[in-house]
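JOB MANIFEST
job_type = single_chain_structure
chain_count = 1
residues = 231
[input]
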Amino acid sequence: MLISLHLPKTAGTSFLGLLEAVYGDGLLRDYRDRPINRSVAARRLRALAGCLRHAAPPPRVQAARCIHGHFLPLKYALLPARDGRHFVVWLRDPVERLASHYHYWYRSYNPLDAGRLHRQVVEERWTLERFCLGPELRNIYSAFLWGFPLSRFDFVGITEHYAEDVRQFSEQFLAGAQPTVAPQNVNADPDHGSRGPYIEDPGFRVEVEAWHARDMALYREALAMRAARDG
């Protein structure tokens, strides 16, 4: 059983394409929780309730070979699996992840299905500064990983090294199978994305890093885990 946590704007949609190609009908998509659109108490209670519920999972979860989506991984911490549970996650430089998330929300906005916070950001016309330095999205990695340290993951990929890390993931968990899947949800703006950083002002970057210090620490931990894996 592979449990894949999709942190927003960390290549999770592209990774989903790979998982779809490999697991087919054995893939369960779990995007119903919408953690960032809930209060801290509500998302934690939902994760705890899910953790207890999945100790004796419903048939559709039992039948899955892979679960992928936006959820707190604690939700599946007690999930029984005959062949064991393997947790995977991708992390990206938190400052660039925030800016990418900001532009993606404006680019993809649909008032009919947007979450509460998504609607608030777009309809109130938040600036990038308001988005990055407000309390609502502070330390998103830490929020998702509540009760589930990074060390519990069996594989931590780095988005900036996506191609190489997908290859390593494939060798470790997919017996080398690596279907060709086109990247998804890539920013079409030629001034951003893979062609250069979103945030070039060093002063602003330092301010954002300080505000998201817990996520910066997690990212550095992920980089160290990757270096140890390569070493």
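[summary]
Confidence is low (pLDDT under 50) at residues 184-194.
The CA atoms of residues 11 and 162 lie 8 Å apart.
exit_status = 0
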